[in-house]
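Example 704.
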Amino acid sequence: MTTATRDSVGTAHTRVEGRDKVTGAARYAAEVPFAELAHGWLVLSTVARGRVRSVETEAVLAMPGVLAVLHHHNAPRVDTDYVGLLGVPPDLTVALFQHDRVAHRGWPVALVVAETSEQAREAAESLVVHYEEEPHDVAFCAERQTEAYTRDSHAPAVVRKGDLEAQLAASAVVVDAEYTTPEEHHNPMEPHAATARWEGGRLEVVDSNQGTTWVAGELASLFSLDPASVRVRSEHVGGGFGSKGVRAHQVAAVMAATVLQRPVRVVMTRRQMFSLAGYRSPTAQRVRLGADADGRLRALEHQSLNQTSTVYEFVEPGAAASRAMYAADAHHTVNRLVRLDVPSPTWMRAPGEAPGSFALESALDELAERCGIDPIELRVRNEPAAGPVSGLPFSSRNLVACFEEGARRFGWSGRDPRPGARREGRWLIGTGTAAASFPAGVMPSTAAVTAEADGTFTVRINAADIGTGARTALTLVAADALGVPTDRVRVRIGDSDFGPAMIAGGSMGTRSWAWAVTAAAGELRQSLAPGAEIPPEGITVRSDTAEAVGALAQKERHSFGAQFAEVAVDPATGEVRVRRMLGIFAAGRIVNPLTARNQLVGGMIWGISMALHEEAVRDRASGGLYGADLAGYHVAAHADIPHIEADWVDDPDPDDPVGIKGIGEVGMVGAAAAVANAVWHATGVRHRNLPIRPDRVLMAGGDA
Ligand code: MOS
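Predicted structure in complex with dioxothiomolybdenum(VI) ion:
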């Protein structure tokens, strides 16, 4: 075999499954054919709190094609007394049909199974369910601080350093401001869909998810099965963004397949996704910054409140975003939550950092204004030498390099800091900037690499390509580790039988998988003698990175970035247009510039959408959402998005075998703040409540 070192990593490569996707050859979860397939349709509650008094199954069971109606009287029992993949108990929303309580509007109360999807839907919509309704409470607002409480999640709820009040008192300038972000939804284009069947004593599930290790493990726990008897596959995934873990559809499909002993498919409708797929909690945040006249921070306080459901405690750690950003003598950050009769929130792209950075990076802009210091210079003056609270060294921190490169390319120098001073016809023009950061983590994974007799290589790793291009990135990584061209490498993913691996989440997927692939491929390459005969079954080497990952030194590990936006605001209509946007990132070694740029630009578009458009409005009377579909929930469309550039500075992670950090989420962090700061620069008005809707711009007026 060839031993020449190649440089596939770092070169643009189109998606290895791109042709399959654009020709329709790629099959998504709901398209995989099964013989004898039955279809399940979820029935969701029409009340926001109470009890199911009765389910009138008789009439529905007589309808054409109907096979079964599962509900709390007849569904298989599940076990919820376990700790899942992420060290937390399960969201009890997935413990379907175990009791008569309704925890929120849109709570699953029954599953109708029929021969066809149409029959199941018609029967489900005909099913009469009687409720005993109780008063509900879905009103989230900042005033609920008083009843809020803290709960440690993967990050501690409260972190303190120094004497905050003393430092605030000693500060020449104090910014004390409150910010809110609304409930936001991350509906991926491909709805949640799963097919379950029993085959040779094993439970097989074909699903669309962010990690089959995760889903298989949770299903094994819920149904008290030997993990080895559960196989979950997820070949192509049309977006996840945090929503595609274990949800009602897989559990319903397994229950029905078990009861009927035939394959059953359950697909969520778009509307069902708005109550069953998770979402980002609204946040109410307060930031207090105290600084000397030269902008040096003495005090940094960030408090964030989020809502959760009555069946699961989910923390949206908005304040955690402030723990690694800026040096200050005193730091105080706290995340609180309040329980309401709402669906369980979950991770949504850049959980914590997305809403948290809006508050923190807006407050920094307010401080820059008050101190009369350029916003970039203010950030440079508060660069920490080590973790501001932890005291740990940074693995690498190239935030200032991002601002320098971004300022140069965006044309920041010579910017007139005065707000409301630039007009082009009916438009007021402004520019804004903000910092971005996201944790750069890695988790243990296993991989297998096989040298085939025909000179090619097969990589098996239970990765998930949720649209990021992970399969392609791993092809490049494997090719370099093997020292061969990419066309001799095939990467197989999305099958829990390949062994445990990290999920596509927390911006950790590609890094975690690449580490395992590099380890196995490197060892295989070492073991293959030049010209050695390969047996027909090939030669396989397996890796497990648990030990190597566990041995990593304690450091502050983050990706960073600098966001720049230019906006035009029409004060007569309240319209805000983003005219251009630039993001420069320090996010480790970039494996595939083509898909990486796509990922970063995608994150920035989310930031624009968050700044200007997205807002799920919950009706206090019904407990449900207004317009729970993609017509009513406003996301940025093509016409809202200007030319966006994303690029990066050199920033290889010194402790990663490939130098990767992770780019899944950092692209959206700070983006909304950059837009809001630009709106202030254009109009002189601070918008502290997202989204910056036309009516808010109009009501706030402007300097001009
Ligand atoms: Mo991402 S919100 O970690 O799927």
